[in-house]
Design brief:
Oligomer: heterodimer
Largest sheet of chain B: none
Order of helices and strands of chain B: HHHHHHHHHHHH
Structural class of chain B: mainly alpha
Helix content of chain B: over 70%
Number of helices of chain B: 12
Largest sheet of chain A: none
Structural class of chain A: mainly alpha
Largest interface: A-B, 15 and 18 residues
Strand content of chain B: under 5%
């Protein structure tokens, strides 16, 4: 699906995942969002968010309408 | 766990990880049948599993080392260009598509599912279910086959690079079923690949390529646990090396076997092993 709107949406999603990854690393996300009962660094979740961020940016680049 | 038990578990894990017979199921059932009393839920067991998985992942990386170089190069080229120009770039994106659902489900569900079904009885029952699944995948596949010889039958189906993105995501998500001890990761991904229209050997190749980042990622994330006090690193590393060697030999065998072979023998093995294990566990033999 080629659409600049979709590309922008995926780009924003990517930024959200980057922020979430950083928050997971510095331990700023509340325990509610993790499977463990304590706040703190959650490496697994941080890495997952980083991977999702990369995937979102790649998908955004694919969705972007290219000008030749 | 004694040194001998560690080596045995390494060999068992490495040999069964890539076969469609559930390594986790075997790792739960076999020690119970042998009346070994180490607890797999014990935190000290985690570093052991981590190293065994790293051994398996290393074996897969060595087996597909040239292919991974091309895939990684293809990934960056396609990602920056925003366009896929050849099969290698498409395969790289298919692997990313297949890995994401497995990673999401793994992080969110793995621990809960494993603890829910961690008994040898459940593992044995699910091993039998895994066998039924393997036979079901082959049955579905036979309906789509044309031709009389195995070579003719296989020629109608596609290479891994031609699978659809939706199918890659579904096959990737199926890996989450393998968090249930007894259900095989390679079994469900090979079966999913067959249903999606891949040749047997290509379904195995796609399954192994898909497994590499998943197994490696799961292992690398847990690496800090190896530095916990009291972990017998030398024994565990020896078991991991044995696991890697067994995984390498298994992968070579399976790639050769699936040139013309099918999932059926593994399906029947799982049903028989599952039912026999249930009987042995029930009657305490």
């Amino acid at each position: 699906m080629k659409s600049n709107t979709v590309a922008v949406g995926l780009g924003i999603l990517g930024i959200i995942f980057v922020i979430a990854a950083v928050l997971y690393i510095v331990g700023g996300i509340l325990p509610t969002f993790t499977s463990s009962s304590a706040a703190g660094t959650h490496t697994k979740h941080a890495i997952l968010c980083a991977v999702l961020a990369v995937a979102s940016f790649v998908a955004a680049n694919f969705a972007r309408v290219k000008t030749v | 766990m004694t040194f001998g038990q560690a080596l045995f578990m390494g060999l068992l894990q490495g040999a069964s990880e890539l076969f469609p017979v559930s390594s986790l199921g075997h790792a739960v059932i076999v020690p119970s049948l042998l009346h070994w009393n180490f607890k797999q839920s014990d935190p000290s067991f985690v570093p052991f599993l981590v190293l065994l998985h790293l051994g398996t992942a290393t074996a897969l990386l060595i087996l597909y080392r040239k292919e991974w170089v091309v895939i990684i190069r293809g990934f960056f080229a396609a990602a920056f260009r925003g366009q896929m120009r050849d099969d290698n770039e498409r395969l790289a994106m298919l692997l990313l598509t297949g890995t994401i659902p497995a990673a999401v489900l793994g992080v969110l569900l793995e621990t809960r599912i494993k603890s829910l079904f961690a008994s040898p009885y459940a593992a044995a029952a699910f091993l039998a279910v895994n066998g039924v699944l393997m036979l079901g995948f082959e049955q579905l596949r036979r309906r789509a086959e044309r031709g009389s010889t195995r070579q003719e039958q296989e020629e109608h189906f596609a290479r891994a690079e031609r699978i659809s993105f939706r199918a890659a995501a579904i096959v990737g998500a199926c890996q989450a079923l393998a968090f249930i001890p007894g259900i095989s990761r390679s079994g469900v991904t090979i079966g999913g690949g067959l249903v999606a229209g891949l040749r047997h050997q290509e379904a195995v190749r796609f399954s192994f390529l898909l497994a590499t980042p998943t197994i490696l990622g799961a292992g690398v994330i847990e690496v800090p646990q190896l530095f916990a006090s009291g972990v017998p690193v030398v024994e565990y590393v020896a078991a991991a090396v044995l696991s890697g060697l067994a995984a390498y030999a298994s992968a070579r065998f399976l790639l050769r076997y699936f040139r013309s072979g099918r999932l059926d023998p593994y399906g029947w093995y799982c049903i028989a092993a599952g039912l026999l294990s249930l009987a042995l566990l029930r009657f305490g033999l």
